[in-house]
Design a protein that fits this description.
434 Repressor (Amino-terminal Domain); 0% strand; elongated; 7 helices
Length: 110
Amino acid sequence: MPRRTTPNALALAVGRRIRALREEASLTLEQLAYTSELGSKGHLSNLERGLVMPTVATLKVIADRLDLLVADLVTDPRDGDRAKLIELTRGLPRGALRKLVKELTAAKRK
């Protein structure tokens, strides 16, 4: 599929999120591209600029390299409370996350 010349809105939102998380991990475009098996920093650059619509497989490769879930790549915390919750749980230690899941599960049963 040919590369777009203008960004797709959804692809751009995902690309910006990937860029933010890549920078948070202190990785350059080149480091992420080559250590994630994407192999092409040009492709990753186009993805971050919204010129390429990422496949689920590509998102999984990037998420694995950043030690994240695919959900973290496609959820913008500015999109509401549920998205904020996903963002807030991203950095929680396992024990705190387990406790939160237990509390939310109990609350849902009520």
